Please model this.
Amino acid sequence: MPDSPKLTIPQITELARGGKRLAMVTAYDASSARLADAAGVDMILVGDSAAMTILGHDSTLPVTMDEMLMLTRAVTRVVRRALVVADMPFGAYQPGEDEALRNAIRFVKDAGADAVKLEGAGRTLTRISAILDAGIPVMGHTGMTPQSASLAGGYKARGRTAADARRIFDEARALERTGCFAVVLEAIPAAVAAHITDALKVPTIGIGAGSACDGQVLVWHDLLGLTTGHVPRFVKRYADLNQAILDALTAYIADVRASAFPDESHTYAMPAEELARFEAQLADARPVRDPMDPSRTR
Ligand code: KIV
Model:
């Protein structure tokens, strides 16, 4: 996979139209991005979930543009095939179209992102239009939108009443009409996501939205078992890296305490005659006690 050419937006659309399910995952640094790309994911999201997974905040709100740019650069430096989507953080597009465009350009121009993602519809639609006018592809995001979660009652599933399902359906269609090349559907009933997927020509990317979506996205740390505490019901863990890392670190500590690491295979040798010469020099240079004050050396 690493030698395959970069995926383009039309290719992503074509893959979905041809019935291939799109696989997307978040990544926030070079090593995870390299692995995701090598495994063959179609899209990598440098998500604002980095606020929690990488920076230790308890919501996505505090992460800044500068922090997101740094993480995005680390990802784009190594990704060869997957389409890289940068998540516009809270505050980067809400103030208005100019601010949204300026920040989207920073993601593409300074950090090498292929596209950006914004949450919500409503006023976000004018920001999306401004960004699209500059030729930057935009991924939409509706359903549960973490940046406005507190206003809407927390990190709970959305679209569980007919009225709310209709609102999300209309938002998804508005995002498509505005020009988004794909729409993330987060934490909504599978049946609602299926209707939206049916109604849209652009691919839907589900997270907690059932299997009818054209693709799926998961957060790196959730997928690999690197998160602790509450795990949303829509997460499937494909590994338990928390335990694997704890086991490795515990073994390392034990080795260090027991002087079992490093052994000869981890150390550098030097020619015996050079070592002898060095030790002879040390003997000459060894400090001698000051006869006037034996507690001191000179
Ligand atoms: O930031 C993120 O990880 C996301 C996904 C949950 C879609 O927006």
